[in-house]
Amino acid sequence: MDGVDDERWLVDAHGVRVFTRWWTPPTPAAPTAIVMVLHSVADHSGRYDEVARRLNDEGFAVVALDLRGHGNTGLAAARGLQGLRGGRAVLDDIHLLRTAALEEFGALPVFLLGHATGSLIALAYLAHHSVGLAGAVLTAIPADVDDLASVAQLLQGASEAGMRDERVLDQFGTYNGPFEPARTPFDWLSRDEAEVDRYIADPTCGDDQPVTFGFLIDLFNVIAAARDHFDEFACPILNLAGSADVMGEVGRYATTLAAALDDVGVDVCTTIYEGARNDLLHEINRADVVADVVAWCRVRIAALPRPTAP
């Protein structure tokens, strides 16, 4: 498995199969920490191969899953749907992956890295399982954390209207507006044209990956509830955004998140990259972003308590 990605299926307590990818640093270097990657909606874990290998080069083992309804997990069940047990099941999937990674690599520090909607899912996970984590990296937070309950309530209205199984049309809204006349409908993602083209060509990304109202309803039920538990977060947060990320309100949502976490005493470090768009891990400055992530993680690892001799 050294130096190459390994594909595995995890099976939850209800028999649901979840697709995962694993990247391990090449031998003889043993991993110094584990990074768990959470992708966004209309996305999948395979798109994070480059960042995973960059992290491998720095001594980190990397694991990721395809969220329910997405990627190979969605192809094996139902695309665009959460399925059994809704949003809480997604949090359990992440914990199942965390447990499997610790069994594989040993008792190493574990970091969570969530992008866009994956960063919101990370917040929901932290509300239940932050104890024992070395830290969490959140990139491109796509919503105002002080207004999550309103979003959940709005989506619940769609449920009451019988729209759960309907696809969300125009799911990326007007994000491309500031970049018109644009080369593609997804110029808002990144200034790297090659990465934008790869995203568009991927049949499990973008407009080719359906997102249903039911998926978002179930997800935001657990995400909105997390807002009331920020004061229980037991690990530090690295909060990253781009100044030209329209989905993130050009950095405003990241600033709001930082204030909310700081208000309750959570250790949060925020960086907003000038000119960067939404997909920081596929942006033209991604090497700098990964370097910042690595540097922050190493500081957190150095600060962890050292085991004492018996």
Spell out the key features of this protein:
single chain, about 300 residues, alpha/beta, Rossmann fold, 8-stranded mixed β-sheet, 9 helices, about 35% helix
Highest CATH level, the class: Alpha Beta
**Strand order of the main beta sheet, please?**
1-2-4-3-5-6-7-8
What's the tally of helices? Answer: 9
Overall mean pLDDT: 91
- Class by alpha and beta content: alpha/beta
CATH superfamily: Alpha/Beta hydrolase fold, catalytic domain
CATH fold-level name: Rossmann fold
How would you describe this structure to a colleague?
- This protein is an alpha/beta fold and 310 residues long.
- It has one domain: Rossmann fold (3-Layer(aba) Sandwich).
- Helix content is 37%, strand content 16%.
- It has nine helices and eight strands.
- The longest helix is centred in the first third of the chain and has 20 residues.
Give the structure's gist in a few sentences:
This protein is of the alpha/beta class and 310 residues long. Helices cover 37% and strands 16% of the residues.
Helix/strand layout:
Blueprint: E1 5-11, E2 17-23, E3 33-38, H1 49-57, E4 60-65, H2 71-76, H3 86-105, E5 110-115, H4 117-129, E6 135-139, H5 148-160, H6 193-201, H7 213-226, E7 237-242, H8 252-263, E8 268-273, H9 286-303
Parallel strand pairs: 3-4, 3-5, 5-6, 6-7, 7-8
Antiparallel strand pairs: 1-2, 2-4
Helix pairs in contact: 3-4, 3-7, 4-7, 5-7
